[in-house]
Amino acid sequence: MSGLNRSFTFLRSAVRSQLVQKANITAKPAKHVVSVGEQAFVMGVMFVTILGPSGWILANLENYKKRD
C-alpha cells in the first residue's frame, strides 16, 4: 500500500508543477469604435471567403465527378 501511496504522491507533485497561473486581464473600453458599415463589410468579406469556395465546388460537383 505504501508503494501505491508513493506513486500517487509522485503523480500529484508532477501535476502540481504543470499548473499555469491565470493572466491578469482587465477589460477596457474600445479605443476605436467600429461602425455598423465596417462590421457589415467585414462580415460580407468573411462570408464570401469561407462559403464562396464551398459553394463553387458544390455547384460544379458533377464536373468533378466526370472522368476525362
UniProtKB/TrEMBL annotation:
<comment type="similarity">
    <text>Belongs to the cytochrome c oxidase VIII family.</text>
</comment>
<keyword id="KW-0496">Mitochondrion</keyword>
<dbReference type="InterPro" id="IPR036548">
    <property type="entry name" value="Cyt_c_oxidase_su8_sf"/>
</dbReference>
<keyword id="KW-1133">Transmembrane helix</keyword>
<keyword id="KW-0472">Membrane</keyword>
<feature type="transmembrane region" description="Helical">
    <location>
        <begin position="40"/>
        <end position="59"/>
    </location>
</feature>
<protein>
    <submittedName>
        <fullName>Uncharacterized protein</fullName>
    </submittedName>
</protein>
<keyword id="KW-0999">Mitochondrion inner membrane</keyword>
<keyword id="KW-0812">Transmembrane</keyword>
<dbReference type="InterPro" id="IPR003205">
    <property type="entry name" value="Cyt_c_oxidase_su8"/>
</dbReference>
<keyword id="KW-0809">Transit peptide</keyword>
<dbReference type="Pfam" id="PF02285">
    <property type="entry name" value="COX8"/>
</dbReference>
<dbReference type="GO" id="GO:0005743">
    <property type="term" value="C:mitochondrial inner membrane"/>
</dbReference>
<comment type="pathway">
    <text>Energy metabolism; oxidative phosphorylation.</text>
</comment>
